[in-house]
Design brief:
InterPro entries: 5'-Nucleotdase_C, 5'-Nucleotdase_CS, 5_nucleotidase/apyrase, Calcineurin-like_PHP. GO terms for molecular function: 5'-nucleotidase activity; metal ion binding; nucleotide binding; UDP-sugar diphosphatase activity. By secondary structure, the chain is α/β, with parallel strands linked by helices. The chain folds into two domains: 269 residues, Purple Acid Phosphatase, chain A, domain 2; 198 residues, 5'-nucleotidase,  domain 2. It has 15 helices and 23 strands. The chain has a six-stranded mixed beta sheet with strand order 4-3-2-1-11-12, covered by helices on one side. A six-stranded mixed beta sheet has the order 5-6-7-8-10-9, covered by helices on one side. The longest helix has 18 residues. The radius of gyration is 25 Å and the shape is elongated.
Length: 479
């Protein structure tokens, strides 16, 4: 729909930008053009979460302040948060970052544990008026209670929360919009099960809807990932009858140029600030620490040992693909550590049987597993890689048939027993059936937040004895 008097309201939306700062100035330019076309007073600009991602130095080095500054300058009216904000930043860091926001943060299903109240920087819903149209916004984020509880949040079932809030909000507004960082399947459920919603703007599963889904009375929309598109919804509005007429929704590709130069300058300044902080030396290494995605290495052993030690487990396990390159002796900065291990993945401890462990270890010796590309669940590497181990001694024949390569395995000098359970310190990614699926079958899972595995690795890099032990072979080839 072209801009004319029929446009009562234009809604612009983004989602899952994941700190792609290289695209943000162009996103701001597109949003600015579309806002000017419809009129400032008729345009509502929203983000649906995962704008922040600590894989990027601008976010890591400023703890999200760079993202908030860019969103302020772009002119967002309201946002909700995704798991990349809620699970990778502490409550204190979130409060500090959003304290600078000139936009509203709407988040209905994540009250503080214990009190049940919402954080001062967030509200469960917000009413914003544009050109006489009252828009009610409800924000909800993906529900990971086992993780959020460790950070002091009582994350609640988002569908239940929306079902409760829509009847309360509906009489007060003309249009109800849900900012849903829940994924496409849950957005479809919301539309089908909750009457009274006019629009659901989605994210989390990185889905792109070039045309909206029409389910019940709702238009379900989403703008993909990484800032490749800006979503646009034009609404005809009958100001006399106060009813919605035609609704047209589409997505607008974001070209490299033109850029919003004010936003570009902010990003440049954020990069300089982050670079200064991440340039601080955090360790001095007395030796080279190589990594091998297809076999045993010092750096992989060091991280596996760190997970075992940090979680106080019998065995430590991690996939070598978490580490993107080796380390040379000499000074190590915080930025170098981020480049080495960018994944926002947490340690965890589970109980696994000898059979479950042995299956994963056998698979880790096969090329189809080592070369397996992974996406999502916090993984920011390229391939799965082999398994790095600590607390075990394994003898294997590399020439033997698949799943028959391991000849013996011992834990603390005792043979690995099929039915016996062992405490294993590993990464939370494995609990989501990612990579070596038998590791997801563990019981009594305990997660450790807010530490990332790069924090665990840094502790090991500061320990001389741990460095020296990293050269000890855990896998011994039988000739």
């Amino acid at each position: 729909m072209s801009a004319n008097a029929a446009i009562g309201l234009r809604i612009l939306h983004t989602n899952d930008i994941h700190s792609r700062f290289e695209h943000m100035a162009a996103i701001a330019a597109v949003i600015g053009r579309l806002r000017t076309e419809a009129g400032e007073e008729r345009t509502l600009t929203l983000d649906i979460g995962d704008h922040m991602d600590r894989v990027r130095p601008e976010t890591e080095g400023t703890m999200g302040h760079a993202n908030v500054a860019v969103m302020n300058a772009t002119g967002y009216d309201a946002v909700t948060i995704g798991n990349n904000e809620g699970l990778t930043l502490t409550p204190e860091a979130l409060a500090d970052a959003y304290r600078e926001a000139s936009f509203a943060v709407v988040l209905a299903n994540m009250p503080e544990a214990g009190t049940g109240t919402h954080a001062p920087w967030a509200a469960p819903w917000r009413i914003i008026e544009k050109a006489g149209v009252r828009i009610g916004l409800i924000g909800v984020t993906a529900c990971f209670p086992d993780f959020y509880s460790l950070l002091g949040w009582d994350v609640q079932d988002p569908l239940d929360v929306v079902k409760r809030l829509v009847p309360e909000l509906r009489p007060q507004v003309d249009i109800v919009v849900v900012l849903s960082h829940l994924g496409l399947r849950n957005d479809e459920r919301l539309a089908a099960e909750v009457p009274g919603i006019d629009m659901i703007l989605g994210g989390h599963t990185h889905h792109l809807l070039e045309q909206p889904l029409r389910i019940g009375g709702a238009a379900v929309c989403a703008a993909g990932k990484f800032g490749q598109y800006v979503g646009m919804i034009d609404v005809e509005w009958d100001s006399i009858g106060r009813t919605i007429g035609r609704v047209e929704a589409t997505v607008i590709p974001v070209p490299e140029l033109p850029r919003d130069e004010r936003v570009a300058k902010l990003i440049e300044q954020a990069g300089e600030e982050a670079g200064a902080r991440l340039g601080q030396v955090v360790a001095t290494l007395p030796m080279d620490l190589p990594i091998d995605w297809y076999g045993e290495s010092k750096l992989g052993n060091l991280l596996a040992a760190g997970l075992r030690r940090f979680t106080e487990a019998q065995i430590g396990l991690v996939n070598s693909g978490q580490l993107l390159h080796g380390l040379a002796h000499g000074p190590l900065t915080a930025g170098m550590l981020l480049e080495l291990c960018p994944s926002p993945i947490n340690p965890c401890r589970v109980m696994l049987t000898g059979t479950q462990l042995l299956l994963a270890l056998e698979q880790s010796l096969l090329p189809e597993f080592m070369d397996k590309p992974l996406f999502g669940f916090g993984f920011r590497g390229k391939v799965l890689g082999s398994l790095c181990v600590d607390g075990m001694d394994i003898e294997f024949d590399p020439e033997a048939a698949p799943y028959r390569k391991i000849r013996s395995a011992a834990v603390a000098g005792e043979p690995l027993l099929p039915e016996q359970t062992y405490t294993v310190g590993m990464i939370d990614m494995f609990t989501f059936k990612i990579g070596y699926e038998s590791l997801s079958e563990g019981t009594e899972a305990q997660f450790f937040l807010p530490e990332f595995i790069r924090d665990v690795l840094l502790r090991q890099l500061l320990e001389r004895q741990a460095l020296e032990d990293s050269g000890r072979l855990r896998f011994v080839k039988l000739l």
